[in-house]
Amino acid sequence: MHVSLLLFHCQACGVWERAATEDALVRLQREGLCQGCRAARTLERRPALLPLFVGFWRKSGFPASSAWLAAVLPPTAPAAAPDRPAAEPAPVPSH
User: Fold this and answer.
1) Given CB 3.0 to 4.6 Å as the disulfide criterion, which of 11, 25, 33, 58 pairs with 19?
2) Residue 70: is its pLDDT beyond 70?
3) Contact between 54 and 42 (Cβ < 8 Å)
4) What is the DSSP string of 39-86?
5) Residues contacting 22, CB < 8 A, separation 6+
C-alpha cells in the first residue's frame, strides 16, 4: 500500500496543512497561504463574515492555524510601563 502525504507549508504562519488531493495542493501552493491565513485576510476586509466562517468550521473542522483569530480579536491592552513601580501588596493583618 502506497501512502502519499500531500503537505503544504504556509510561509506566513509556519503551519503544515494536509491537502486532500494533488489539485488542492497545487491550489495551496499557488495561493501561498494556509486556510487560517486566507481566512484572516478575508476577515480583516469583511469581519461580518465571521459567523459564516465559524458555522462552516463547526461542521468541517477549524483551521490548523489560528492566524484567523488575530483578524477578529481586539488588540490586547499594553503592558504596564517599565518605569512605573508595581503596586505594593496589601499588608497581611497579624492576630
Assistant:
1) 25
2) yes
3) no
4) HHHHHHH-GGGHHHHHHHHHHH---S--HHHHHHSPPPPPPPPTTSPP
5) 6
